[in-house]
Design a protein that fits this description.
Distance between the termini of chain A: 36 Å
Order of helices and strands of chain A: EEEEEEEEEEE
Distance between the termini of chain B: 38 Å
Largest interface: A-B, 22 and 22 residues
Helix content of chain A: under 10%
Structural class of chain A: mainly beta
Number of strands of chain B: 11
Strand content of chain B: over 45%
Helix content of chain B: under 10%
Number of helices of chain B: 0
Order of helices and strands of chain B: EEEEEEEEEEE
Structural class of chain B: mainly beta
Oligomer: heterodimer
Shape of chain B: globular
C-alpha cells in the first residue's frame, strides 16, 4: 500500500529533551516536506526537500532540523524542544511539488 | 494581504444540501489549485486538482477556478454525513519547485 508513515503518532516530552520524529514514504517520491498545524494558523511548512541531500527552510524553520540521507526517509529533529513547539506535525511527500500525500500526523506536547 | 484567504466557518448543513466552499488568493501567478479534505485526527488527503481556469467534476464534487477574480470554489452536491471534515484549499505557481500555499481550512458538518 502506498503510504507515508510517521512515528511516533503521539509524544509528550519535556523542554530541552532532544527528539526525532521519523517519516518514511514508499512511493519513490522526490519531494518531501514537514508541516505543523495549529488552530487558527492552518498548515505551515517547516522544511522541505527536493531530493536526497537537498533541503531548504520553509516558513517556520526555527528550532527544527531535518536531514535527507535516503530518498524514502525525512526525519524531523527538535534539538531542544520548547512549549511553543507543541503542535500537530505532518510529513508529506509528492512526485511533483504540488500533489502532496500526507502522513497520519504526530501530536507533540512539550511540557 | 495574505496569499490565500479561506473562511474558517464552521459550516453546518443538512444532509442532501449543496455546499459551497471558497478561497480567494492574491498572486495572479498561481496556476495550480487543489482542494484537500481532512477528517478529524487524520492527515489531509488530496480531493481535487485543477490547472488554470475552469471547472472540474468528480462525482458529487466540482472544483471551479475563476482566475480573473482570483477565486476558487468547491461545490459538494447531495452532501452526506461522511463529507463532514475540514476542507483546505491549496495553491501553487507554475515553477517546478514552488511550494503549496494552504488556506486555513473550512470545517464542514453535514447533519443527518
Amino acid at each position: 500500500e502506498a503510504q507515508v508513515t510517521q512515528n511516533p503518532r503521539y509524544l509528550i516530552t519535556v523542554t530541552g529533551k532532544k527528539l526525532t520524529v521519523t517519516c518514511s514514504q514508499n512511493m519513490n517520491h522526490e519531494y518531501m516536506s514537514w508541516y505543523r498545524q495549529d488552530p487558527g494558523l492552518g498548515l505551515r511548512q517547516i522544511y522541505y526537500s527536493m531530493n536526497v541531500e537537498v533541503t531548504d527552510k520553509g516558513d517556520v524553520p526555527e528550532g527544527y532540523k531535518v536531514s535527507r540521507k535516503e530518498k524514502r526517509n525525512f526525519p524531523l529533529i527538535l534539538e531542544s524542544p520548547s512549549p511553543n513547539q507543541t503542535s500537530l506535525y505532518f510529513c508529506a511527500s509528492s512526485p511533483r511539488w504540488r500533489e502532496q500525500f500526507f502522513g497520519p500526523g504526530t501530536r507533540l506536547t512539550v511540557l | 494581504q495574505k496569499e490565500v484567504e479561506q473562511d474558517p466557518g464552521p459550516l453546518s448543513v443538512p444532509e442532501g444540501a449543496i455546499v459551497s466552499l471558497n478561497c480567494t488568493y492574491s498572486n495572479s501567478a498561481f496556476q495550480y489549485f487543489m482542494w484537500y479534505r481532512q477528517y478529524s485526527r487524520k492527515g489531509p488527503e488530496l480531493l481535487m486538482y485543477t490547472y488554470s481556469s475552469g471547472n472540474k467534476e468528480d462525482g458529487r464534487f466540482t472544483a471551479q477556478v475563476d482566475k480573473s477574480s482570483k477565486y476558487i470554489s468547491l461545490f459538494i452536491r447531495d452532501s452526506q454525513p461522511s463529507d463532514s471534515a475540514t476542507y483546505l484549499c491549496a495553491i501553487s505557481g507554475q515553477g517546478g519547485s514552488e511550494k503549496l500555499v494552504f488556506g486555513k481550512g473550512t470545517k464542514l458538518t453535514v447533519n443527518p
